Amino acid sequence: MKGIENSMPAIRVSNQGKRKVMSESFLTTARSWYEIEHKAWEFRTAIGATGEKFLPVMDILEIIMSQSLMLVELRIETVQDMGTAEGFTAPDGSFIAFREDVYKKAHRNDPRARFTVAHEIGHFVLHSNTVLSRVPFGAVVPPYKLTEPQANVFAASLLAPLQLIESYDTVSDLENNFGISHTCAVNRLNRRNNLSKKDSGC
Ligand SMILES: [Zn+2]
């Protein structure tokens, strides 16, 4: 199993940090990048989506996970209520909420919104009903122990699994085939080529 220690540099968590996503991270079970990619593939397997490149994440969450299986409640919140948060997964896994503009964009297959949906599914799969603890102020924590980087890796792996990336695929192929952003496509190609130094999936 490939560890992620070498490819994911330590992050100093700070209330002053510009990367808001990191200040919202919680400490969780350490997981390798490989393990998270495997979890995302298991999820695709469970919903019978190992053959299709473009994953309809909003339909999967809304129709399969929420309406059919009743695994989780889907909530749409106003911009006033959500503020800068685009999505939120309840720690007990009871609901996943999206800001209404993100929900609409996800249904229109906007790559960033699709990533947000996949990211929240990642929190649901990896972090709901698990023990999470706050990161002590100023602590240096490796990203493989933090919820936000883990959810980002899950999202990238769910949207664009390495198993479905062809050897001849270009960045634009990945953008078009998997419905991901340019940056995400670049990172996934780098990941496939084992060159990625990124600390997140996209
Ligand atoms: Zn998150």
TrEMBL record:
Taxonomy, superkingdom: Bacteria
UniProt xrefs under InterPro entries: IrrE_HExxH (IPR010359), Rad_response_metalloprotease (IPR052345)
IrrE N-terminal-like domain mapped to chain residues: 99-189
A Pfam family matched in the record: Peptidase_M78
Record-linked PANTHER family: ANTITOXIN HIGA1, BLL7220 PROTEIN
Identification of the protein by name: IrrE N-terminal-like domain-containing protein
Organism: Bartonella apihabitans
